[in-house]
Structures are given as C-alpha cells and as structure tokens.
Amino acid sequence: MPSSTVNSVEILFTVLRKMIAEVVDVKQTTVKSWECTEEGTCLANDGSHEARLFSSLGKEGRLLADIKANIPNSNIALGAAMKNKLHGRAYPSKEWEFRPCCELNFDLDICKFRKLKAKQRNCYTNLKIGAYWVKKEGEKVVPIVSSITDEVQLHLQAVARGEAHAVPDKVKADYKKRKLIKEIEKTVFEVRKGSEFTTSVVKQEAEFTKDMIESGQWKNANFKPYNFKSKGRVELRSGHLHPLMQLRSEFRRIFLEMGFTEMPTNSYVESAFWNFDALFQPQQHPARDAQDTFYVSDPATCLEVPEDYLERVRKTHSEGGYGSIGYQCKWNRAEADKNLLRTHTTAVSARMLYKLAQVLVEAMSETSFEKAETYKRNRQPQNAHVKLIGAV
C-alpha cells in the first residue's frame, strides 16, 4: 500500500483496539530527532548562502554593491564566506607548561583564541590572520581559494536523510541558532504479539442484547472487556455562580470580615405592613397597585403583626407624630395584612430595626446603672462630698 494512502490516526486506533483485546502488546516511547526547517530544506537542495556566493564570484571577483543588490541573503553569505581564521603552528600537548618537539598546523577561530589564557596562547606560534573563502579588496569581493566544500549543505542533507547523528553537536547547535534545523519529538509505538494474538479478525461485542440470549449467540460471543479506568472524553463542568452572584459573595465576605452581621433575607413572602406601611409608604401609593406588586392568593393574609407597633404606625399614618402631620387619611388594617412577594430588602431592615429595639429595651430594663457624682460646697471637706446613687 502506498504510504500516501495510509492514515496514521486510523493505524493508531487499530493498534490500540488490538491492545485492549490483548492481541498485541504496545510499548510507547518518545524519541528526539532533528529535521530541516523550510530554509534548511532549501539550502540542502540548492547549497548554502556562502557557497552560492562563491560560485557567483568567478576568478576576478565581483563588486560588493552588485552582490548586495542581486544575491539573496548577501549579508549572511558574506559573513560566513569571510569568516576570519588564525593560521599557524601549535604544540598539541594537553599540558600547557611545556612544549614537546612535535608541532602541527592548525586553523582556529579568532573568537576562540581570545578566550584562551596566556599560558594556552603561548602554545601557538607563527600566527597569521587569513580569510575562509573570500576576501575584500577595495570595492570588490574576490576568492582566495580555487574550490570549496559546502559542509553546510552536506550537513543539512544528512539531517534530511535522518542521519543527524553524523553531524557534530556544536554544529547542530549553530544550525539551530540560524533556524536551519529544529529538534522535534516523535512518539514511537513498538508492537509485539500479545497473549491473545491471532491472525483471524473476530469482532468483539460491546453489548449483551436480548437477541443474543434468545438465540444462544452469547455462548460463543467474544465480548469487549469494560474499561473501568476510563475518565471519558469530556469532563462536564458543574454549575457555577453568575457574575453578579460572585460579586455579591465577594462584598458579603468583605463586610463579614469587617464585623458586620448578616440580616436574614430568606423571607421572600412578606406582609404589606412590613413591606410598605412600616416604611411609611401611603396605602394609596401607585407602587402598591397590582401591576407593580405580586400579591399572594393563598394564604392571602399574614399570620401575625406586633399589635403595639402596628398601632403606632397606624396613628402616625392617620394623625402624624414625631414632628409630622401624617397623611391625614383613613388607614386600612386589611390592606396592611395582605401577603405579597417582597419588592425590596428594606422590609428586612424594618423588621431587624424593630427586633433590635425590642432587644435593647429588654436589656435596659434588666440592667442596673451606677454613677459617682461630685459636687462642691463652700465648707470643709467631708465624706458626703462624694455620694453614690443607685437606680434599678
């Protein structure tokens, strides 16, 4: 089968299904490898920038302006082709303190030579600076060698063939920096015969059906084993707070940490007395009409209202008080007893203020007060100058 018609995903699913059925054993490993980038592939096919530059020079060289105008990536090509080297002789000993008799010719990058210590530099003699392939003479770039070997192209071709191990690590690091090659990870599946290996294809049944029982097919059927470790394809998210509820929760936390006490707001059905009358909203107010308020039909009226407080509210509505003349109209008790869906949480505030007032009155009635009083008279000091007065 041609490789272009093979779907790797289908092959993987087939192998995994056979692994579940124990037909094959699969070992999965991750392998790092190198491959050429788009630019690296072009250089592997057409040659490196510096090699193409060298080929275009001829024996007489070429004007620098002409090179920059007509040769792509001319700056990269010139930099690589004119890379400076140190030529000379060196003592090959690993010990820098003495020099053996044997000497070798060498080529060394100037940048590497500058990093050497003084004792290490002493091992090099007859140092001369020369160019790699070309040099600049006035306004022209001329070759200084008759032929070259394009090592960059050879290295990239080796990477493209899957032989990156033949390229030195330092060279690969340099090519990676130049974005000519990149390191990739591949998942490799090693497939071997399993305990239930067979060459015949037998369909595994996923369900135990009524027809299997009636026909007896279940006796010879090959059932697919259950995977109890599977977590499913999609993790369903549970419910979450509405953004406004999140903001409300944050404000609630802040106030509670500041020492505030939260009022009970779970009384969604409220009496008209606490929702309107206790807040001194007149019974003829338009907001109390049916189109603005949802009244409850069953039960239609509230169970109880504090009579003493109701009487004070009624009197204030009808006759006034506390510096007010009231609404000067008849106040209807039946209107105040109606049940409705609470239209605002201020009704809760009215209830809490009444309860707090009752708690305060009860606490004051059960508390003894004491004070020390001083006074002055125009006579000699006596013990009576300070007297204690107790009141219950």
TrEMBL record:
InterPro entries: aa-tRNA-synth_II/BPL/LPL, Phenylalanyl-tRNA_Synthase, PheRS_DBD2. This is phenylalanine--tRNA ligase. Transmembrane segments: none annotated. It comes from Portunus trituberculatus. Keywords: Aminoacyl-tRNA synthetase, ATP-binding, Cytoplasm, Ligase, Magnesium, Metal-binding, Nucleotide-binding, Protein biosynthesis. It is an enzyme of class 6 (ligase). GO terms for molecular function: ATP binding; metal ion binding; phenylalanine-tRNA ligase activity; tRNA binding. Pfam families: PheRS_DBD2, tRNA-synt_2d. SUPFAM superfamilies: Class II aaRS and biotin synthetases (SSF55681). GO terms for cellular component: cytosol; phenylalanine-tRNA ligase complex. The gene is Farsa.
